[in-house]
Amino acid sequence: MLARLTLEYRTPYPTSDDRQQIENYLATVRARRNAFEEIRRVVVAVIDRLIERMRQAYPEFARYHGHGFEKGHRDLVLLTQMAANAMFLGEYQTLDEMFTEWYRTIIKASHLSPTFVRDALAVWREELQAALSDEAYALLRPVADHLAEYLTRIPVPPKDETGKRLPVPPRR
Question: Cα separation of 48 and 77, whole Å?
């Protein structure tokens, strides 16, 4: 947020709106830092549970993608860490420029259906909400919602390589 504001200044000094945005962001830095640390502590456990639930919902997925769940685990840990970074910075623009479009390209190249991605990101958000404090999740939620909306805007692949879909099991 600060980097974006300073790079976009059109005047030699910040306007009153710019100053207000900076003050609002600075007032939340401590809470953002605490949430960032909390996310980093729980990320692997969150993704472990997500993968377990997705294995149950898509039992044939491994037939199409031999190491897909293992690669997905790695990628979803990275996605969560990037979401934590964006939450801490207070803006998505840098995330989208540096990561999100690249990640969406990988999703499309893997021939994952929008339904599969939507299911995975819904479980991701459920698991994050369950693992994080209310304060941390409240700060992360706008970024998680942004990523879920952005990453599911993919075409239906000519050949669905996710297999039969069963109901996603509820969180235990």
Answer: 9
The residue among 62, 67, 170, 66 whose CA lies nearest residue 126 is 170
Q: In terms of Cα–Cα distance, which of 43, 41, 45, 5 is closest to 23?
A: 5
Mean pLDDT of the chain, nearest integer: 88
Q: Give domain status of residue 172, yes or no.
A: no
Regions in the chain scoring below 70 on pLDDT: 1-12
- Specify if 46 maps to a domain: yes
The reported pLDDT for the residue numbered 21 is 77
**The whole model's pTM is what?**
0.85
C-alpha dihedral sign at 97, 98, 99, 104 = positive
Count of structural domains within the chain = 1
Q: Which residues of 4-36 are buried (b: 16+ CB within 10 A; e: fewer)?
A: ebeeeeeeeeeeeebeebeeebeeeeeebeebb
pLDDT digits (tens, 9 = 90+) for 147-160: 999 999 988 888 77
Domain that residue 106 falls in: 18-151
